[in-house]
Amino acid sequence: MSQASVIGIIGGQGWMGRSLGLALLEQDIVPARQLVISSRTGSGDPYRDWPEVRCVQDNRELVELADVIVLSVRPQEFDGVDIDAGDKLVISLLAMASCQEVARRVASRRVVRAMPNAAAEIRRAYFPWFATPPVTDAERRLVQALLASCGTARELPDERDLDFLTALSGAGPAYPALLAQSMLGHARQRGIADDIALEAVMQTLVGGSLLLEKLDADPGDMVQRLIAYEGTTAAGLRAMLDGGFDEVVHHGLDAAHRAATSSR
Ligand SMILES: NC(=O)c1ccc[n+]([C@@H]2O[C@H](COP(=O)([O-])OP(=O)(O)OC[C@H]3O[C@@H](n4cnc5c(N)ncnc54)[C@H](OP(=O)(O)O)[C@@H]3O)[C@@H](O)[C@H]2O)c1
What we know:
Number of strands: 8
Bound molecules: NADP nicotinamide-adenine-dinucleotide phosphate
Order of helices and strands: EHEEHEEHEEHEHHHHHH
Shape: elongated
Distance between the termini: 32 Å
Structural class: alpha/beta
Largest sheet: 8 strands, mixed
Strand content: 5-15%
Helix content: 40-55%
Radius of gyration: 21 Å
Number of domains: 2
Number of helices: 10
CATH architecture of the largest domain: 3-Layer(aba) Sandwich
């Protein structure tokens, strides 16, 4: 197993599939002639700049051509993927499908389960993954290289961690968007013009996140530092924490976690 392997992406024209496929091509991790993608309708053509990419409609043909098979259809579309992977390495991006279930349905013991998020589109995804024991060290290195094309990839020691991260990082922009929506609504209620409110909220969330990333420290330290500073922000933080901010966030993550495991 090497980077000369042919990679086949089932659902390779969809949101996640094309983010991964295009990231692999743009960063020269996989040459176009070694990429095969499938979709039922073949609609759209995100690979038009790489004519050597093979696009097929028959997943069995993809399985024949590929050494590594990436499953990137929606969970509710999994039933329509009727393949026998013949023990080839299969990387599943599906939420709500365990390694055991994927292994059974694609006839391979060599399964990696990975959880992207929508920031793969801008190559800033957090992409944790878990491999079943038969996956070799060389295959694990290949998986890490493939998934890191979309952002930060991280092998996990326990599949249960992936269930929780499905709820957390798998949500991608969802929770920042919820916070932005709430701040925006409040700014508008307070009479701030729409365009200024949007600009202020976006720059606060994006600038604040970039600063936290640059500091590379526990964000809780920043919260404590700002509370200790005793400025206006301290009043806001205290009121939010006293009002049950942690409980609301934990309650939401628990609900998403339950949904991520509900089919098992
Ligand atoms: N989007 C996210 O933010 C996100 C985050 C975390 C995890 N995921 C996971 O990523 C996976 C893909 O999601 P997505 O958002 O990329 O979905 P999507 O945009 O709907 O893409 C799914 C693709 O699968 C193709 N497809 C469906 N059935 C097929 C079949 N039998 N054979 C070949 N192709 C088939 C569809 O094309 P045709 O209709 O032409 O066949 C479509 O292009 C999901 O399992 C999801 O749980 C997504």
